[in-house]
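Try this one yourself first.
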């Protein structure tokens, strides 16, 4: 409630939104104050919504449901981020305290010229606004462009605005874009339906310029926070499963993914082979030319081998100079041919180092095993490792196979 003894609701809201532990919790302010300036003050204090007394219970429930849906999404992303942190991945929860919700890209769907001109005039100083009068064209444009907010007039003449909102929510490209309705006072029931369809906010005509700007900023700020959380989480996950030097998947990814590939192979009765590669005398490269040269060799080696295998083959770096290639739908005979192709590609040309000023010859030893009768991951790794040892023992720069 805005009117409270000791500390008013505006200050309570500001403190909640400044606290990193509570800033993501939706806040609805309820008050008898009914001027647009009061609503603007509440929104600028961080309120997610502002409801005037007497409270319309149906509208209140619809607004709370809309905010709860948003919070469920944010909570899920925050939970995944916390899980990532416990697994040793850097904390992917972004800092948003400096975000003010300006300089966003807004799509306005309005077929009344006078209305669209007033809305654009209110927003153009702080946002980039694209106006579309044709709802179907607006849907295509929304899917093609990266908008921070879509504003839809509920009074479109020849098209159901709620149908457009539903279509926007159904497309993967636009599912996460906030929707704001512009409605007339008599549109109450349709607005409530819109909130149930996934509309995030609404304004009733006559639209107050400052309230429009404040609500738009709130939606854009919220969108950027959710996007930043998703992007940071995705980047953190990639950091956890991708080797930063070569760009290949790492041991962690291989260990989590290899079992499912084996299960798929066994379930379909299809072959699968595993190749372990070890760069010959790689320690000498580091000792003679330095670790920077060694890193150059590893990056070039990864690129050269990837060019010699198939798109469906999964190549990972186990660590150091050791790599693995998983070859689905591949028997031992074909796997040996691929291994020979890889070996020849590595040996074919010297590897430039020190920015191309020097070059060195590199060879690779390879061990291969197929799925065989024991489909356990450890079993196929042991057999491929045994074959690799044989390649090393027999003089290196060769391919050996251990067929089950």
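Now uncover the answer:
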């Amino acid at each position: 409630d805005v009117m409270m003894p000791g500390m008013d609701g505006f200050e309570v809201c500001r403190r909640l939104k400044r606290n990193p532990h509570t800033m993501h919790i939706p806040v609805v302010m309820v008050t008898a104050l009914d001027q647009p300036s009061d609503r603007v003050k509440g929104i600028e204090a961080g309120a997610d919504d502002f409801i005037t007394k007497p409270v319309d219970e149906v509208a209140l429930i619809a607004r709370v449901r809309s905010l709860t849906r948003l919070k469920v999404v944010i909570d899920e992303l925050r939970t995944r981020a916390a899980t990532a942190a416990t697994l040793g991945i850097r904390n992917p929860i972004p800092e948003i305290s400096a975000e003010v919700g300006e300089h966003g890209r807004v799509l306005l769907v309005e077929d009344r010229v006078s209305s669209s001109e007033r809305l654009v005039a209110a927003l153009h100083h702080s946002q980039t606004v694209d106006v579309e009068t044709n709802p179907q064209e607006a849907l295509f444009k929304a899917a093609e462009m990266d908008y921070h907010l879509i504003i839809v007039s509920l009074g479109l003449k020849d098209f159901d605005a709620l149908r457009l909102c539903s279509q926007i929510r159904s497309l993967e490209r636009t599912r996460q874009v906030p929707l704001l309705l512009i409605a007339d006072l008599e549109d109450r029931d349709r607005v409530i339906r819109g909130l149930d369809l996934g509309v995030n906010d609404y304004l009733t005509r006559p639209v107050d310029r400052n309230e429009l700007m404040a609500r738009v900023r709130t939606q854009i700020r919220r969108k950027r926070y959710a996007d930043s959380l998703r992007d940071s989480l995705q980047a953190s996950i990639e950091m956890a499963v991708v080797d930063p030097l070569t760009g290949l998947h790492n041991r962690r990814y291989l260990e989590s993914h290899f079992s499912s590939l084996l299960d798929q192979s066994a379930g379909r009765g299809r072959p699968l082979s595993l190749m372990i590669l070890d760069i010959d005398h790689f320690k000498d490269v580091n000792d003679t030319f330095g670790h920077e040269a060694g890193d150059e060799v590893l990056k070039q080696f990864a690129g050269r081998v990837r060019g010699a295998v198939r798109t469906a083959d999964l190549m990972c770096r186990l660590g150091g100079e050791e790599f693995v290639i998983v070859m689905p739908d591949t028997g031992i005979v074909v796997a040996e041919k691929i291994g020979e192709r890889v070996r020849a590609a590595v040996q074919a040309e010297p590897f430039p180092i020190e920015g191309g000023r020097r070059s060195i010859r590199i060879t690779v030893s390879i061990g291969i095993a197929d799925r065989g009768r024991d489909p356990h991951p450890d079993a196929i790794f042991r057999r491929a490792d045994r074959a690799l040892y044989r390649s090393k023992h027999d003089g290196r720069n060769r391919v050996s196979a251990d067929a089950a």
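Discussion: The chain has two domains: 96-236, 249-402. The first helix runs from residue 9 to 18.
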